[in-house]
Amino acid sequence: MRWGKRGPLMAALTVVCAVTVLSAPGTAFASVAPAPAQQAAPAPTPTPEPTPTAVPDKDLEKVREKLDRLYHDAAVATDAYNAAEEKTKKQSAEIVALAKKIVEGRRKLEKLKDQAGAAARDQYRTGGLSASAQFLLSDDPGQFLDGAGRVLQGQRAARSLMAEKTRTQRDLQRYADDAADRWQQLDANRKAKAAAKKKIEKQIDAAEKLQSRLEKKQKERLARLEQEAAQKAQTAWLDTGVLADVHGKASAQGEKAVQYATQQLGKPYVWGAEGPDAFDCSGLTSQAWAAAGHPVPRTSQEQWKQLRHVDVEDMRPGDLVIYFSDASHVGMYIGDGTIIHAPRPGRTVTTAGAGTMPILGVVRPDA
């Protein structure tokens, strides 16, 4: 992509303005002209809350499974949202840096043009005669030879000046092209964020509506079913004898990460949040390790991809336990078969058995 005849300076101004707009939270991609004033329409009738209905106890297990699927899909979309958010931050910073290089390069080019003009004017004052002609017409050949040496130096300087000018022009075009590429990536990731946000809200809304149809006693029974399922999974995991070999001691940084995570107990889960008042699952683990002085990737999927894998039997407090085959959830191991995690919407940062969900693997940030 080329920036046209208006030049790199206009490109710099364009990308700086554009990234300012795109990096603003909640910025829309297009604005719509205000419609002509019209008579206010009557306020829409509020949609009534669903009336709780009796659901046979035998069907509550199906409700629990459906809720798990809805919240799992919301977690996957949250990871996609967080990944897109991280990319937009990085691309915004890159565009701003490129824009600064374009502005600096433009100033350098103007200075080089001024120097080239001065050199041309000096050559004009000599009359443009060849060196041999100037030697023949000179009254003092010795003085001419001294001057000729200076002329040769000037010519070499002029050639160097023109080469520098050419390099600067090439750099300016490359910066402009790079900025255009980053702009396209930024736009794509803004759209990816919007799509993920829509999916998250849809899944959470469906889960909330499903739960709103239950009577109070059924909600209590559903909570017991969730606890029973978690206890059953944890017991099965412990029965494998996995903890018999888990004796790892936390590193100094691991202890700091655990301490940070522990201090967040009771704070609400909010998708996309990374503190200080609310967290999602990877927001909690990434901030805990950042507080320990060892930054890690923002999302659970990238934590799984980029951090060193360790065997479950070798895990130690501070390690991150990654869950589900798609790495859509993460918790921090704190010892004694327990994790701290931010579970899902409607819940708070809490402790849980490390085996209550299907474990994909364990990663160590400070390996």
Index terms:
367 residues, single chain, alpha+beta
Describe, in short, the structure shown.
With 367 residues, the protein is α+β, with helices and mostly antiparallel strands. It is 59% helix and 8% strand.
Please outline the helices and strands.
Layout: H1 7-22, H2 57-125, H3 131-137, H4 141-212, H5 216-239, H6 252-263, H7 281-291, H8 300-306, E1 308-310, E2 320-323, E3 329-335, E4 338-341, E5 350-353, E6 359-364
Antiparallel strand pairs: 1-6, 2-3, 2-6, 3-4, 4-5
Helix pairs in contact: 1-2, 1-4, 2-4, 2-5, 3-4, 6-7
Describe it for me?
- With 367 residues, this protein is α+β, with helices and mostly antiparallel strands.
- Helices cover 59% and strands 8% of the residues.
- The chain contains eight helices and six strands, in the order ααααααααββββββ.
- The protein has helices at 7-22, 57-125, 131-137, 141-212, 216-239, 252-263, 281-291, 300-306; strands at 308-310, 320-323, 329-335, 338-341, 350-353, 359-364.
- The protein has a six-stranded antiparallel sheet.
- A hairpin with an 8-residue loop joins strand 4 (338-341) and strand 5.
- Helix 2 packs antiparallel against helix 4 (141-212).
- The two termini are 43 Å apart.
- 28% of the residues are buried.
Largest sheet: 6 strands, antiparallel
List the secondary-structure elements in sequence, H or E: HHHHHHHHEEEEEE
Provide the low-confidence segments as ranges.
Answer: 1-41
Which structural class do the helices and strands define? alpha+beta
Mean pLDDT reading? 79
Proportion of helical residues: 55-70%
Radius of gyration: 33 Å
Strand numbers in spatial order across the main sheet: 1-6-2-3-4-5
| General shape | elongated
Name the beta content range: 5-15%
Counting DSSP H or I runs of 4 or more residues, the number of helices is 8
The total count of strands amounts to: 6
Distance between the termini: 43 Å
